[in-house]
Automatic annotation (TrEMBL), chain A:
It comes from the Bacteria. InterPro entries: MetI-like, MetI-like_sf. Residues 89-295 form the ABC transmembrane type-1 domain. It is found in: Cell membrane. Belongs to the binding-protein-dependent transport system permease family. This is Carbohydrate ABC transporter permease. PROSITE patterns: ABC_TM1. PANTHER family: ABC TRANSPORTER PERMEASE PROTEIN MG189-RELATED, ABC TRANSPORTER PERMEASE PROTEIN MG189-RELATED-RELATED. The keyword Transport applies. The chain crosses the membrane at residues 29-53, 88-112, 124-153, 173-195, 216-237, 270-295. Keywords: Cell membrane, Membrane, Transmembrane, Transmembrane helix, Transport.
From TrEMBL, chain B:
Keywords: Cell membrane, Membrane, Transmembrane, Transmembrane helix, Transport. Pfam families: BPD_transp_1. This is Sugar ABC transporter permease. It comes from Thermanaerothrix solaris. It comes from the Bacteria. Gene3D superfamilies: MetI-like.
Length: 311, 321
């Protein structure tokens, strides 16, 4: 007995020792890592909350961790006294909701056609869609701006006596923010993949019963794809609610800004009122946080799934 | 299209009519998508390509310029030392001098750091730990918050009198000092993206069949060997995906730079994506042709780097097997 227990430590190689150490230390080590990163993730939002509850004059003053002196003035101003903030909230809501509703509908339509119907050029169009997803947005940014706004040809295309507009004329208009986003290649692709995995029996039964393609789509396919549509809707809403670059290019007057644009503009105009920007920032964050808490499963699945499918 | 050609020969008139009707229905279903696709993808790419060979400032119609736009972007004259009396070349060296090196520096620092942090976090999350759901929710918070809001908050946190300097007793002018500004933006981006990438890694880790680990343990592999020879190879496709997404994201970063520094101080945070915006929309005389040329150069760079990266990750895989 004694000889064995004496001999054993000598037999341990350095890597075995390392593993022993690791086994002892790993649980506390992992907790330490997780807690540290959790603090890093929460801290910015926590400081934002604390300082949005302090008066404007104390925007840089200690104490850092508690709102002393305490005031609700910033939130009151954001909701009531500064008329632009509610306006921006409303604009953001209009854009995000319109894009979300149109996009899930149009993407479902496109995906259903690719998954279930036969038509000329189908393979070519599907491949073109896949390729288009790989092109960086910067390439199409300038023509997209010209088409949505002033037009490709200033003053329109003149054909004899008729002048055809070459742009939608939607500069400084929420419609211009909405238009290019109403359907995306990614969404159509996602819905195509989903419909391909869906059993055909129900649709075939409905077809025998004499229901047309549109009837099948509205009465059977759409209700069956609720979960998938909800995932696409959440991703879309989050993307549009937080969008910055495209609205920045299209919108010009502060009354028409969306919330992210407005917050950035306000920060530039009223440099000293940073506390109000912080309160406004929380308004921009809150709806997404609430959606995230309610539908966490869908967010997580959509992110996790993307890596596995394409990887 | 998938029907064998033999049947198409003996198609009755009724079948033909039905096919035509189906094709028509299919195109009605696809109409919204095709409308957007034709305008904002097909036409836009073609027109951007045309614009890249023109000089266009929105005031007068585009003027054919040939390769002059590309020449001005690349500014080849500035690569070599000039004779002293030679005239200064007519070009914009902001791309070669600042945007290109900045973008590569940014990608070279942000991609490995965020990949490593998210991998470590995912690995820690994959152990038997409590409050896993809570941790997951917290880690994902920065990713759901808008990049503009995050940037606005960080501008304030990192201001000279801000919270960061107060907590750590520093006197650094994070965003107005060319030595620190770019690194501050990098930190913000690593902070925002790591949570999402962690979720992707975690899904990948949980997808590795437990039988593989058991088999390796029976064969006498120790923990480091299991990690090295099971976990990492099995995770390779996910790593490839995360690195690709990271690279593409880094090459296109815009919001944070626009809000936090607008490319300054002294162009130290000007990246390619920001430079495209600056030339096309922000400069007093907009240079839409030159900006289009740069957009195509950016697309080419992203394509080449992604392909190279694929080679590297797949290449290292074949050595092991």
């Amino acid at each position: 007995m004694a000889t064995i227990s004496h001999a054993q430590p000598r037999m341990l190689s350095w890597s075995d020792r390392l593993i022993l150490w690791y086994d002892h230390l790993k649980t506390p080590l992992f907790y330490l890592i997780l807690i540290l990163w959790a603090i890093i993730c929460i801290a910015p939002l926590y400081f934002t909350l604390v300082f949005s509850l302090k008066p404007v004059a104390n925007a840089y003053d200690p104490p850092l961790f508690w709102p002393i002196p305490f005031t609700l003035e910033n939130f009151r101003d954001v909701i009531g006294a500064l008329p632009l903030f509610p306006r921006w909230l409303l604009n953001s809501l209009i854009v995000s909701l319109t894009v979300t509703i149109l996009r899930i509908f149009f993407c479902a339509m496109g995906g259903y056609a690719f998954a279930r119907m036969e038509f000329p050029l189908k393979g070519f169009l599907f491949n073109a869609m896949l390729v288009s997803m790989m092109i960086p947005g910067q390439v199409t940014l300038i023509p997209a701006f010209l088409v949505v706004g002033p037009g490709i040809i200033r003053g329109g295309l003149k054909l004899g006596d008729i002048t055809l507009p070459t742009g939608f004329g939607l500069i400084d208009n929420l419609g211009g923010v909405i238009l290019p986003g109403i359907v995306t290649a990614f969404g159509v692709f996602m819905m195509t993949q989903f419909y391909k995995s869906l059993p055909r029996e129900l649709e075939e039964a409905a077809m025998i019963d004499g229901l047309g393609r549109w009837g099948i789509f509205f009465r059977i396919v759409l209700p069956l794809s609720q979960t998938q549509l909800l995932t696409l809707a959440l991703l879309t809403f989050q993307g549009e609610w937080n969008a910055f670059m495209w609205p920045l290019i299209i919108l010009r007057t502060p009354e028409n800004f969306t919330l992210p644009l407005g917050l950035n503009w306000f920060r530039g105009e009223y440099y000293t009122l940073i506390s109000k920007v912080l309160a406004g920032s929380l308004f921009n964050t809150l709806p997404i946080l609430i959606l995230f808490f309610i539908f966490q499963r869908y967010f997580v699945q959509s992110i996790a799934g993307s890596g596995l499918k394409e990887g | 299209m998938t029907t064998p050609s033999t049947t198409s020969v003996i198609l009755t008139a009724r079948q033909k009519a039905r096919r035509r009707r189906e094709a028509l229905t299919a195109y009605t279903f696809l109409l919204p998508y095709l409308f957007i696709f034709l305008i904002f993808t097909v036409f836009s790419i073609g027109y951007a390509f045309y614009l890249s060979f023109t000089r266009y400032n929105l005031l007068s119609p585009p003027q054919w310029w040939g390769l002059e736009g590309y020449r001005r972007v690349l500014c080849i004259e500035s690569w070599f030392p000039r004779p002293e009396n030679a005239p200064k070349p007519v070009c914009d060296d902001l791309f070669i001098r600042k945007a290109l090196p900045n973008t590569f520096k940014y990608t070279a620092i942000v991609v490995p750091t965020q990949t490593l942090i998210s991998l470590v976090l995912a690995f820690a999350m994959d152990q038997k730990i409590r409050f896993r759901r809570l941790f997951r929710t917290i880690f994902y918070l920065p990713s759901v918050t808008s990049s503009v809001v995050i940037s606005l908050i960080f501008v304030w946190l990192f201001s000279p009198l801000g919270v960061i300097n107060q907590i750590f007793h520093l006197k650094i002018n994070w965003l107005n000092d060319p030595r620190y500004a770019f690194y501050t933006i990098m930190m913000v981006n690593i902070f925002t993206t790591s949570g999402t990438l962690m979720l992707i890694f975690l899904a990948g880790l949980q997808d590795i069949p437990i039988t593989l680990y058991e088999a390796a343990a029976i064969d006498g592999a120790n923990k480091f060997q299991i990690f090295r020879y099971i976990t990492i190879p099995m995770l390779r496709p996910v790593i490839f995906f995360v690195v690709t997404v990271g690279i593409i994201g880094c090459f296109q970063v815009f919001d944070q730079i626009y809000v936090m520094t607008a490319g300054g101080p002294l162009d130290s945070t000007t990246t390619i994506a920001y430079l495209i915006y600056k030339w096309a929309f922000r400069d007093t005389t907009v240079k839409m042709g030159q900006a289009s040329a740069l957009a195509f150069i950016l697309a080419l760079i992203i394509f080449v780097v992604t392909m190279l990266q694929r080679r590297v990750i797949e290449g290292s895989g074949s050595v092991n097997q």
